[in-house]
């Protein structure tokens, strides 16, 4: 029986967009058909760069051009930026499968589901870009999501705390406001895509919350206090509100964790 970890590594390392999307679907089907094993004792390779196409050019976050959302150029830039996040999220999901081993089958089932949904989101956004006479890769983008993956590659608990529950959870805060602005501008086609993404991303962050607490319980750690400590230790970025409390609560955040986020925002202003 083929190893799930080998298949996940192929998805992660695929550089061509169509190849990564094809392998993602193929691996998910093989997993659900019971054709992939999780019994491998082999250690994962050290984390490196994931497979990605030659474009977009990757630049520092501050060097990504900013455009006003009320213009067509601003709309195209927004759709491209979200498409880049979703493409990165495919790699992040497959790395969560590939890197962390000897875990329950449900863990792998959850992150394979995430990989497939992120691939679907990317395809929706790429189609919208094509309708706007552009394609993924036409604008520069940054690599912030993967940089956090590198920092958290040593421990699945730290990965769950900081990638889905901090970086990816930012989408829960900002997407509703973007949807409102796009709807006011009559941009319903893009709104429909973002509503799908927001719905699914609540589920993805909830998966991160579930497995974060699983690892805390295994280690007899207080999850709320550990979340605060991990933010202090590993996250140096700006946490900017307002936070979407309802969406975050649906995604598994406790009141104590939301207070931690508020305190970090206030401390850095």
Descriptive report:
The chain is an all-alpha fold. It has a single domain (2-267), classed as Ferritin (Up-down Bundle), CATH 1.20.1260. It is 66% helix and 1% strand. It has 11 helices and 2 strands; from the N terminus they run E-H-H-E-H-H-H-H-H-H-H-H-H. The protein has helices at 4-13, 17-32, 72-99, 105-131, 144-151, 156-167, 170-184, 188-218, 223-234, 245-250, 255-267, and strands at residues 2-3, 36-37. Helix 3 runs antiparallel to helix 4 (105-131), helix 5 (144-151) runs antiparallel to helix 6 and helix 6 packs antiparallel against helix 8. The longest helix has 31 residues, at 188-218.
Briefly say what this structure is.
It contains 11 helices and 2 strands.
Key traits:
globular; single chain; mainly alpha; Ferritin; 269 residues
Strands of the largest sheet, in order across it? 1-2
Give the SSE order as H and E letters.
EHHEHHHHHHHHH
Number of strands: 2
Q: How many H/I helical runs?
A: 11
Shape: globular
Query: Beta-sheet strand percentage?
Result: under 5%
CATH fold-level topology: Ferritin
Helix fraction, binned, reads 55-70%
What is the level 1 CATH name? Mainly Alpha
Oligomer: single chain
Tell me about the largest β-sheet: 2 strands, parallel
CATH architecture, please?
Up-down Bundle
Q: Low-confidence runs (pLDDT<50, min 5 residues)?
A: none
Coarse structural class: mainly alpha
* Domain module tally: 1
